[in-house]
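User: quick one
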Amino acid sequence: MPVLAVAFYVAMAIFVTYPGYLPFNRIRPFVLGMPLSLFWHVFWISGSIFVLAGVYRWEKRRAATSSDSPATTSDD
Amino acid sequence: MDRWVIVTLVTAGYLALSLLVGWVSGRRASDTVTGYVAGDRGFGLLVLYFVMGAMMFSAFAFLGTPGWAYSRGAAAFYVLSYALLGFAPWYFLGPMVARVGRKYGHVTQAELLSHRFRSTTLSVLIAVVSLVAFVPYIALQMKGAGIVFNAVTDGHVPIWLGALAAYAVVMLYVLKSGVLGVGWTNTFQGIFMLLIAWALGLWLPRHLYGGVGPMFERIAELRPELLTAPGLDASGGPWGWGAYSSAVLVSAIGVTMWPHLFMKAYAAKDDATIKLTMVLYPTFLLFLLPLYFIAFAGVLFDSAPPSADFILPHMILSTDVAPVVVGLFCAGALAASMSTGDAMLHAAASIYVQDLHHKVIDPGLSDRGRRRLIRVVAVTVGVAAYYIAVNTEMSLVALLLAAYGAVVQLAPITAAAFFWRRATAAGAVSGLVLGSLVTLCLFQFPQYRPLGLHEGILGLAANCLALVSVSLLSTPLPEGQVAPFLRASRGGV
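Assistant: Done. Structure below.
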């Protein structure tokens, strides 16, 4: 799961800079009143909330299931 | 009553409330360095969220970013990218930093790195770089506060007085309450400026053009070049992709390495608090959107501000909003400036005392003595920054960028501290020095940058090279010193 988060941010770094941004760097269509080029950033920012919330829940569940046996390391 | 009198009264009311919140909040802190610098490691989610958010939401966000959007269009979108990419690593890095800090009693970034590499030189280097970066930054925040106050009162409140009023309040609550004052005022200021930003950001386009959508429709017709990246450069010509992309990456790395970000990780109550803060942090970023809306509203406006940075106050003053709203806007802008400036003032003083004075000049100084010294230094830094803010012109920005170039160069060392056992003090110091020098040279002589790439990227490459090669050539640190540090960072005992 943390690997997925890292992948998300690597993908973001590629898609908000050259050349990944190119296909989405357009004025139309408008989304929520914004040009696509601006909404594209809103999309990644909102995505980040879901991805990290997912990682957080996953870590919590894992901590809960492994708490029966004494955990020596909690690798993030 | 004149408009400027009402505006001043509203702003004064906001300043009084800030002072009250900051003054009262420090009563719970213990009388120690950890209490003053790291809030006894007790910050909860609410306060940490606003402290982290306030770092991004500075006077620059209120003036500079809209100024960019207004004059350079989509070039300003890069802020949205680097602010997220810079903070996201803290979901993982924050808890590691905090765990090591709890175990060894660190309260600053330099303490962490100099402990890991057993190097006083590193501590002094980092302290100097941080201070050189912070003082002009604080000065810029002060100047921003003064400029806004001056603009919205039609020049009746001079810049020196506006800056003085705002930062006298900051100084009082930082001295009295330390980081707790910073934390709780940032919460109050944060809620305040978010409400103002959204209210104005949605109302203005609606009032002027019938909504955000119709506004962008008209810009798409009249100035389409403003709506697609990489936008325009400072002189109005098209900006390059190489410059845009590398600016995103270097700025992101720079943000991750902000020394005051480390200090706030130490202030967190526990790992879960840091992680949840990072989960929620992007919601704060979305609050930059209304500021973009106001700036783009200015593009179609028939009058222009004296300089692009004035677009926000210009828009507020040129539309017939009630004086009370102008006052609230001014207070919101001051909140943005103060909530960034206070954390940096507090951080600069703490760093000087913990990483420079206590390490080199007077190692025997007691906890009590250090606590007192931090306050003395805070006043000194505040006065110095104020002097710079009132007396100097633009060369500040160059000094600031140069110092931040060096802050970026802490990234490879920090990564090595946690993930590469073999890294040594000699490697860390040479990486930092070489990386900073390369950055500085290319900053001075931009004609040698390949593809218009940001100078920091090339500095980082030189830095990594030096870090790896010198580390491998020097004697490894004893395993008994490195292993406990790494175990602590991963949550072991």
